[in-house]
Amino acid sequence: MTEGARIALAVGAALALGFLVMACVTDQPWAAFRALVTGPLPSMERAADGRLVMHRLVRFGAWLQDATTLTLVGLAIAIPFRARQFSLGADGQLFMGALAAAALSLGLGDVPAAIALPLAFLAAAMAGAAWGLAAGLLKTRFEANEIVTTLMLNVVAVQVYRLIVGRVLNDPTAGFITTPPLPGAATLGPLIARTNVTAMVLVAPAAVAAVVFLLRRTTLGYEIDLAGANPWFAARAGVPVARATVLAFALGGAFAGLAGFHVSNALLKRLPVDLTPGMGLEGIVVALLARGRVAALPLAALGYAYLRVGAQAMERATDVPREVVLVIQALIILFVVSDRLAPLALGSLRRVWMRIGRTA
Amino acid sequence: MTVAPLAIALEDVEKRYPNGTLANSGVSFTVAAGEIHALVGENGAGKSTVMKMLYGLERPTAGALRIHGLLADFRHPGDAIAAGVGLVAQHLNLVPSLTVAENVVLGHEPRKPGGRLDRVAAAARVRELVGQSGLAVDPAATVASLPVGVRQRVEILKVLHRGARIILLDEPTAVLTPPETATLFATLRHLAAAGHTVLVITHKLDEVKALAGGVTVLCQGRVTGNARMADVNEGTLARLMVGRDLPPPPPRRPAGARLAPRVIARDLGYVDGDGAIRLRDVGFEVAPGEILGIAGVEGNGQDVLARLLSGAAVPTTGDARLDGRVFTGLSPRAARSLGVAVVTEDRLHDGAAPTLSIVDNLLATRYAQPPLSRRGLIDRGTARRWAEAVIAGFDVRATGPHQPIGALSGGNMQKLILAREIADAPAFLVASQPTRGVDIAAAAALHTRLVALRDQGAAILLISADLDELLVLSDRIAVLYRGRIVARFEAGAVDARTLGLHMTGLGPEPKGGDHD
């Protein structure tokens, strides 16, 4: 059975089960289901003058924006995972990246976009990489479990972020605790009107392509792969396992940092103190859905973002409570990552079928 | 008409694992009651799967198993034990801190009223079993104090205690010295004479010859040969096992003036993290074009010696030089850059990355240098062509250079590992157990390569538990026992029996100050 067919079957089964759950909690399960499945898509209408008009572009934009962030944080999980390191640190790296990009943008003030944008972009990547590097060094130098260190580094990063946004970069004229708006030259303009879909929507797949090339064609990528596949063998063969592991963390961190740049300089254009943590952890889901294959990350991110935005649409359009929406999301992920579920289900179906055939 | 009753019968047995791997297909063979039957074939040929099905650890996906004529549908080992089938696994499952008697009755204990273990009855039961089976073991001894050969006897007693009439043994000689092997064979013959049926996995031709009444050959999950020992001679048996005639053993190195040593190791010692002395006072010299064999029962310091010599561990004392330059105590990469290559003892653990492709496994030691990479970019085309050339040149059975190396049989994997290690014409090769678990045809091919490398002027340290291999290939042999070299021989002047005695610490004391 091909991977595509397996995933289609898993998603189909999860949606069917989700429909049953919805039927239990709402009088209008069909409407809710429709909102979930078609929510993120724009609708087209022919206006009075005969032109095609697109509606609901905001949601469509939200889908692409979400997918962009998710692809980048997915890389932050997937690259260390190639070295068999379970990094949970994308959140902290994203916060550090966002903070660095915003701080630099504000600090530069009125400079041309050609200077402000690349510098903010680089600052975000470097801040994320530094945060990843820390986890990598703790692992290779001191044998500190990376799951623990990345989670703790997340806590540190989020609190440092809140401290700096609240105390240093605070805009006293705003009605809430936030940085001032970033200078226009440092922010990215929309590619689709009324959305925040910016050039970052192209940067994310380009980043994925670059990482695929790195892993497949460079000696560093080979070292990361070998260190992950069998570190004892890699060491005996003379591969610098510790260096490869540290660099895998740092490289992953750089992309989470870029996700932070996306949040600060493309989506929000200013940083509120209560920026919600958790997007980095969603990156774990995306990396799991892509099953460690970097090239599959954009697809997994698109799929997962679609589900998130569809769920939001359902929540708004119907009386299905948010809790049920989250349950359905979780169900889909459970079904997709259960490797043997679809083959087993098909197998038992076949057996039942044969038994029926025999008794008939 | 009288026919010997069949103890084991497999009828068109198929085993397909849920992931799609077909481990056995159309396997049919029978073993008469009271027979010793050998199951031979390379690693991955499906021998162990047959054993697991007979012991209830796996269930066949098609076909039928019969035990003493009755259809056997074992769901777990308990069913198999109830049907009189017992398994002596390759890795022994004993509790080291308990006595022999306690280990034997563990799980089926004689109990006093109140449920407590009846030690007196347990010891009596074990003495009774010892008397019946001829397996000499002291019931009161603690298992931790026993050598491996005796522990294996305890395993057999355990199986007998549970009432087994059919005894399955998975590569029982892999961990034994020659004297221990001889004792095991005598025991098995005794058990067979007493009416037990023995099914034993091995891939050694001489063991089949010495022990078995019948033999079944498995290849890629199917039965490719089946014979009564009475009907075959050694030549036909070898053909049956290999599929073609074996090449003649490699020629001995022409005796000539010994050249100046290329590798000199002095006073090598290693104390591990727990403070245990794993190696001490090990010194040796290897000349160009010479193979020095290291004999020893596993766990007597061979692994440490190989790790020190390949840069994977830092010696506590002493060092080793290659062409005058110290190569120990640095790093694996530094040792390699000085001309050292390594075939590691456990190829799945640190000799290969089983999930990665053949190409990626070959690249591991050479990826950082031209022509395989330039300025950090790997030339995948060159790498693929090299892998294809190796597959063809070493006669590796694989579907192509991108097949995961873990999907290959042990012999094919080992050919690729050796190909990788000798690709840069190393000055010094440390080869640990280069043919362990490898079928005899592949072993012969590997031996030919080692000899060719020797003839090019490389110094080779051959660490092996296989005495036949050591005796055929080595120019000189040193015996490692409890971390020390206890004896040294010219290879032509020693036999397996003498080596075996020294390996178990039973040889005469080593001559003092002998550094050869």
Helix/strand structural class of chain A: mainly alpha
Quaternary structure state of the chains depicted: heterodimer
CATH topology call of the largest domain in chain A = ABC transporter involved in vitamin B12 uptake, BtuC
Largest interface: A-B, 23 and 30 residues
Per DSSP E runs of 2 or more residues, the count of β-strands of chain B stands at 22
In N-to-C order, the SSE pattern of chain A is HHEEHHHHHHHHHHHH
Could you name the CATH class of the largest domain in chain B? Alpha Beta
The domain count of chain A comes to 2
Strand content of chain A: under 5%
Total number of domains of chain B: 2
Q: Helicity range of the residues of chain B? A: 25-40%
Keywords (chain A): Cell membrane, Membrane, Sugar transport, Transmembrane, Transmembrane helix, Transport
Main location (chain A): membrane
Membrane topology (chain A): Multi-pass membrane protein
Protein name (chain A): Simple sugar transport system permease protein
Kindly describe this structure.
The complex is a heterodimer of chains A (360) and B (516). In chain A, helix 8 packs across helix 9 (231-237). Chain A has 360 residues and is mainly α. In chain A, 73% of the residues lie in helices and 2% in strands. Chain A is built from 14 helices and two strands, in the order ααββαααααααααααα. The two termini of chain A are 29 Å apart. The longest helix of chain A has 30 residues, at 113-142. Chain A folds into two domains: 1-27 and 319-360, no CATH class; 56-306, ABC transporter involved in vitamin B12 uptake, BtuC (Orthogonal Bundle), CATH 1.10.3470. The model of chain A has no long low-confidence stretch (mean pLDDT 88). A two-stranded antiparallel ribbon of chain A has the order 1-2. With 516 residues, chain B is α/β, with parallel strands linked by helices. Chain B folds into two domains: 6-242, Rossmann fold (3-Layer(aba) Sandwich), CATH 3.40.50.300; 263-351 and 425-503, Rossmann fold (3-Layer(aba) Sandwich). In chain B, 32% of the residues lie in helices and 25% in strands. Chain B is built from 17 helices and 22 strands. Chain B has helices spanning 47-54, 77-82, 100-105, 119-133, 148-161, 178-193, 205-211, 234-242, 302-309, 332-337, 347-351, 358-363, 380-393, 410-422, 440-455, 467-473, 496-503, and strands at 6-16, 22-32, 36-40, 62-67, 70-72, 85-88, 166-170, 197-201, 214-219, 222-228, 263-271, 277-286, 290-295, 317-322, 325-326, 340-343, 373-374, 377-378, 428-432, 459-464, 476-481, 484-490. A six-stranded mixed sheet of chain B has the order 6-7-8-3-9-10, sandwiched between helices. Chain B has a six-stranded mixed sheet with strand order 16-19-20-13-21-22, sandwiched between helices. A four-stranded antiparallel sheet of chain B has the order 2-1-4-5, covered by helices on one side. The radius of gyration of chain B is 25 Å and the shape is globular. Chain B starts with 5 loop residues before the first strand and ends in a 13-residue tail after the last helix. Mean pLDDT of chain B is 86; it is low at 511-516.
